[in-house]
Amino acid sequence: MQKINNIIYDVVVVAGGKKASLQDLIGTDVRALAILNGRRLLDYIIEPLKKSKYIGKIVVVVDEDVVAKMPSIEGVEVCAGGNNMPESAKAGVEHLGSQGRVFFICDDIPFVTQEAIEDFLTQVEQLQGECFYPIIPKINCLEKYPNFKRTYFTLKDGCFTGGNMMVLDTKIISQGMIKANEIFARRKSPMKLASLIGWSFVVKFVLRLASSKDIVNRASDILSFECNKIISHYPEIGMDIDKKEDWLAAEAMLEKEDK
Are 237 and 165 in contact (CB under 8 A)? Predict the structure, then answer.
C-alpha cells in the first residue's frame, strides 16, 4: 500500500439511520446504538477510524432527537443532521469546519477495517477529482461473504456493488447539495430519475454496454464536478446490515470469529 504523504482526512460518520423494521430484533430503532454481538454498531466503525494515522477529526451525525442519547466517545464529536442524507453530510462538514477532501462513512458496515479504509484513501490520493466512490467486484464479495445478499450491477468491465463510503471536496458540497437533493427527491420515481440521467444512457446501462468509466463521466456531467471511481477489493466496505437477514448473518459471522 502506498503511503499518503502528510494527508489527514476529517471524517463524517453518517448515522441518522432509523430502522423500525429492526426494532423487534435489535431493541431500538436507532441503528448506530443497537448491540451487535455485544458491541454497539457504531463502535465497529469508530475503532478502525481511530486506529488509522490518516484520520483527523471525527463527527457522528445523527437525528436531532438522538443527540442526547449518544454515548461520549473520546475524540469523537456528535452533531444533529438534516432531513436527509445529503443535508446530514453537509451538517457534519459545517460542524467540523473542514476544508479540502473529507471522508464520509455510513454507520452500518460492522466488518470495515483499518486496512480497507486506508486502501480507499490511498487510492483517492492518486487521482484528481472532487468526488470519489468505491465499487467492489462481485467475486470479492461472494468469496468473503457468501451468506450476504447484495445488489450488483453488471457493466462492460465487470460486475460490481457499491461501497458505503466516499470522499468529497468541501468546495463542491454546497453545489452538490442542490443536485443531490434533486436526485434524492426523484429516487422513488424511475421515470423522473431516468429523465435526469438521460434515456440513452439508461438504455446503454440496461443493455450492459456501459463501462464504469462511462458512469463516472455521466455522473460528472450531471453533478457538474469531477467524479472518480475507486475499485476496492475489500468487500467489507459494502456489507451493510440494514435488513433483518443481514443483521442475523452478521451476528452469526462475528460470533464465529470470536470463538
Answer: yes
User: CA-to-CA distance for 166 and 121, rounded, in angstroms?
Assistant: 9
Residue 208: left (phi > 0), alpha (psi -120 to 50), or beta?
left
Domains and CATH numbers, the chain: 9-258 (3.90.550.10)
Q: pLDDT of the chain along its 259 residues, tens only?
A: 444 566 899 999 999 766 666 677 777 878 889 899 999 999 999 999 999 999 999 999 999 989 999 989 999 999 999 887 788 888 999 999 989 999 999 999 999 999 999 999 999 999 999 999 999 999 999 999 998 888 899 999 999 999 999 999 998 887 777 777 777 677 667 677 778 888 898 899 889 999 999 999 998 998 889 999 999 999 999 999 878 888 889 999 998 887 6
